[in-house]
Amino acid sequence: MAAFGGLFWRDLRLALRQGGDTGLVLGFFVLAVILFPFGVGPEPAILRRIGAGIIWVAALLSALLSLDRLFESDYQDGGLDLLALSTLPLELAVLAKCAAHWMATGLPLALASPVLAIIVNLDLGEIGILTASLLIGTPALSLIGSVAAALTLGARRQGVVLSVLVLPLYVPPLILGAGAVEASMTGIGARAYLLVLGALSLAALALCPWASAAALRQAVE
Description:
The radius of gyration is 18 Å and the shape is elongated. The chain contains 10 helices and no strands. The protein starts with a helix and ends with a helix. By secondary structure, the chain is an all-alpha fold. The mean pLDDT is 86. The chain has one domain (2-220).
């Protein structure tokens, strides 16, 4: 656990010290949400109807921006070889890097969402559901994205290939997250959507580190 914690804090400190990933992700997230009302019109009813979907789509695209650097720096400087040869299982190393990625990108997105939800005219209760869905669902984005990042490691035009691979896999969290807010609007209740979204994140937690580690071993051989 000491090695796991050390790798987690190392990656998190690098992300926060450089500031590029978190600042770029948050900046894109805010601008994407703000631009939507200019395209669809300022009518409050329309914005409220599609607001959750707007914020979730912006969150997905924002999280995608930093995925190509999840393993790239370690791959370039030889750190990935050291991780593969260390006593820490590579699956746990992947999990530590995914946790740091979520802390630097997914968590700020979820914390910024209530302010942006006001722009798209969501009610207080719907803002709470939206924030909860992002807190529950964004870990799955980092975990699923780690598989695509590992598979495309060292590829030419990695960012484009990674986007093609990962965007279809992001559809279920998008549907469940936006659906939770819509269910709250209609009075059905968002509990079922949030539970399934949580199950998806737990499934990604159980499966994705193994798949990412297998792809990384192939990359370093």
